[in-house]
Each structure stands twice: as C-alpha cells, then as structure tokens.
Amino acid sequence: MRTALVIGTGLIGTSLALALSGRGVRVHLADTDPDRSRTAAALGAGTEEQPEGRVDLAVIAVPPALIAPTVAGLQRRGAARAYADVGSVKGGPRRELAGLGGDTASYLGSHPMAGRERSGPLAATADLFEGRPWVLTPTPDTETEVLNLVLELVALCRAVPVVMDADAHDRAVALVSHAPQLLSSLLAARLGTADESAVRLCGQGVRDVTRLAASEPRMWLDILAANPGPVADVLAELAADLEETIRSLRALEAADEAKREGGAAGIEAVLRRGNAGRERVPGKHGAAPAAYETVAVLITDQPGELARIFADAGRAGVNIEDVRIEHATGQQAGLVQLMVEPVSAPVLIASLRERGWSIRQ
C-alpha cells in the first residue's frame, strides 16, 4: 500500500491515518468539517490535498448511517482500488450498499475494537489499535486484492485481524460494547439526582462502571440507531435478570425464613453467574485470564511516585502484570494496586517494605 484516502477525521480516522503516515503511506484526508481535517493534517496524519488518481485503499470513518452512501459515491468516481469502512455496525451498511447499486466485491466492512471516551482528531493517537482485535467481515464475493489491502491496513496499525460474519459481529458488539455503554450511562444517570453525601462516597467501583458514561452522546446515538435490534435483545435479557434479582432482594426482607433463604439463593446464583462470565473475559495478550495477586501500596500524589514504585518493583525482579489506582476522596493520596503472579507477591511486598513503602493488606 502506497496511498490511502481517509474519509472522516475523528478519533478513529485520524488515529489510523497517523499510523499509516508514520509507516510511509501517503494519506489523503477528507471531512465534511474542514476544521477537523485541517487539525488532523496539522497533527501529521496526512494531507488535505486531493489525490491525483486512484488511491490503493479508501477508508471510510463516518457514522454507520453514512457508510453506504459514502462508499457508493467514492465507487462511482473510481476513487480507489479497494474500499473499507471502520464503523461499529457491519450488516446494515453492506446491505444498504447493495441496495444502492454499489460494488460489494471491492468493499470490505471492518471494525477496529478500540476507542476512547474522548472524540475528535485531538484525541487520536497512532498506537490506538496496537494489539487490539480488528474485525473483518468478508463475503464469498469479496475480491482477494481487497482483503489483502485491508489486512495490510490492519498490520500497519499493528492490530490483530479477526474474521467474522457481519451479522454475528453486530450481535457480538451489542453484548460487549453497545449494551455496556447504555448500562454505564443508566447507572451514571442515577448519580445526577443523588444526594451529594452519596456522591462523595463514590469509589473505584463506581468509577470503573461509569467510565463509559463520559462518551459523546451524539456519536453513540448514531451507533445505537444502526444496531437497535441486537442491543434491545441483550437489554431484554438483562431486564429479565433484573426483575428476578429484585424479587430475590425483596424476599430477603420477608418475615418468612423460607422466603429469605430463597432470596439469598437467588442473589448467590446471580453473583456466581457473574463470576463465571467474568472468567471468560480474555486476559493479558488475549490469553485466558490469570489469577493475579494484588499488592496494594499507599502512594502520595507527588511527581515521580509512580515511576519510583515501578522502579522498585523492577529492582525486586517482579513483573507488574496490571495496575490500578484508587484515589482517596479529598486527600492527596491513594492506593496503587499492583497485580502480580501469586508467587511474586511475597517477594514484592518484602522488597517494597524494605524501601519504605506502606503496604495495605
């Protein structure tokens, strides 16, 4: 791939343009908002100049409802050898393109499973896709050259290609991406009317669950409008689970001991099903999740403290597998949770204590 055209210079479009430009591909940028394409170009993502002839690959990074008409328009003017989109919904745009008379053989739907709560070109980064799954949805009529060019795009962005059926992809992202966004927003919305005394008690658990609620509403409305059925199916199943859980909780308030026992059994069943589901979430490097030991260390909010604790762990010969920080409300301190292999935990604890760190068991 020597040349590419990126239509849409938001977070995803600008990020992949930065990755391609950084690896020697000449990238042409286009956006309905000239300020966005100008910003992306200023960041080094490519040039706003129109390509002189056909580019090797046109990448369409626009809202799902605009994918098919954008691809069809590019195809009519012969803008590229191959066309790919990076939208989060795959089945609908392909069917719409066929309905518009577009060439489905030169088009391949794809979806990089990466993103941030922030949007726009200023949030973009060339390493956004590194190590992340990138779904490809070829069909029997997809041209080999098209598939190879999109695979090259994935490789240049250092992502991991995953081949799926388009409709299966849409059902999958409804469960692992779209429904979680709505659930995060629903819980965060409860905080909007909560008493201030309750909000002040928010800890890391609430921060984790509501992180997605910071996302751009307009962008998510576009996504959800393109995949409403599968998302509604997931939420309907969750609603049934919630109703059963509510009944179990009410039973815990009953005077009858048998009802309380039944309520407790219902709640335990939900929690155990949650344990089982959580264990299926891929762990580090996509492998099966590992059972790490958590070493919690009190840390002050001072420059260089995180670097110092990581350096001290390195001196102890311990690899930090993952890390989380829980901030103390109203104080310049918090807990840094270091996830390590169980056999390494005693070594790390002893070493950090020797160096003056305060360990919280």
UniProtKB/TrEMBL annotation:
EC number in record: 1.3.1.12
Entry keywords, A to Z: Amino-acid biosynthesis, Aromatic amino acid biosynthesis, NAD, Oxidoreductase, Tyrosine biosynthesis
Domain of life according to the entry: Bacteria
Reactions that this protein is recorded to catalyse: prephenate + NAD(+) = 3-(4-hydroxyphenyl)pyruvate + CO2 + NADH
Entries under Pfam families matching the protein: PDH_C, PDH_N
Metabolic or biological pathway: Amino-acid biosynthesis; L-tyrosine biosynthesis; (4-hydroxyphenyl)pyruvate from prephenate (NAD(+) route): step 1/1
Domain ACT: 294-361
Alphabetized PROSITE patterns for the sequence: ACT, PDH_ADH
Protein name: Prephenate dehydrogenase
Organism per entry: Streptomyces johnsoniae
